[in-house]
Each structure stands twice: as structure tokens, then as C-alpha cells.
Amino acid sequence: MNPIIEYITGTNTLTDEVIAMDFLNNAKSGVRNYAMAVTECVTPEIKTVLAKQLEEAIESHEQIMNYMMKRGLYHPYQVNEQIQLDLQNIQTAMNIPS
Fold first, then answer.
1. What is the C-alpha separation between 41 and 71, in angstroms, rounded?
2. DSSP symbols for the chain
């Protein structure tokens, strides 16, 4: 995209980290939604389909999380490091022109 348009729209601050974190959050939401759907399902056929989708959603979440961990974008096992990263991301978000 054109750098001027990126600046005007605020997308110049979209980094791999922001995009990956958004993707990870959506994957987590998908896992929760599929898990809930499986528990609410009444027919075995639909339950089987939803359970397969749940497995795939969990695998996607794991792949995204591993991608982020390898690149230092996510620290699920080092809480203090993750807090510092979150604070940096908050500051970046607050600096986006509105």
C-alpha cells in the first residue's frame, strides 16, 4: 500500500506482531466457540463435524502461537516479559493517529 495512505488510515503501525496477535485472539475465540457448540449439539453427525473443526482450530492456534514464540512476539511462559511486551503494544496503539 502507498505509505501516505497507510499513514492517513493508521495502518502504517500494523506490524507482524499486531497482525499475529489479532490472528491468535481470533483463533482462541474460534476454539471457545467450537467447544461450546460441541457441548450444545444434539445429533451425533453434527457433533462429529464440530469436534473435527475444534481439533483443527486448536491446531491452528498452536501454529500461530509457535510462530509468535519463535519470533519473540509472544511469551506465554514468561509472564513478566509478556507484560512488558503488552505495555509496549499499548503504547504503540495509543500513538496511532485517530
1. 38
2. --HHHHHHHTGGG--HHHHHHHHHHHHHHHHHHHHHHHHH--SHHHHHHHHHHHHHHHHHHHHHHHHHHHTTS--TT-HHHHHHHHHHHHHHHHTS--
pLDDT in tens, 43-77: 999 999 999 999 999 999 999 999 999 998 889 89
68 closest CA partner among 26, 16, 2, 30? 16
**Whole-structure pTM value:** 0.73
CA distances from 76 to 25, 26, 73 (A): 13, 17, 10
Residues in CB range of 98: below 8 A, 6 or more apart: 10
pLDDT at 8 over 80: no
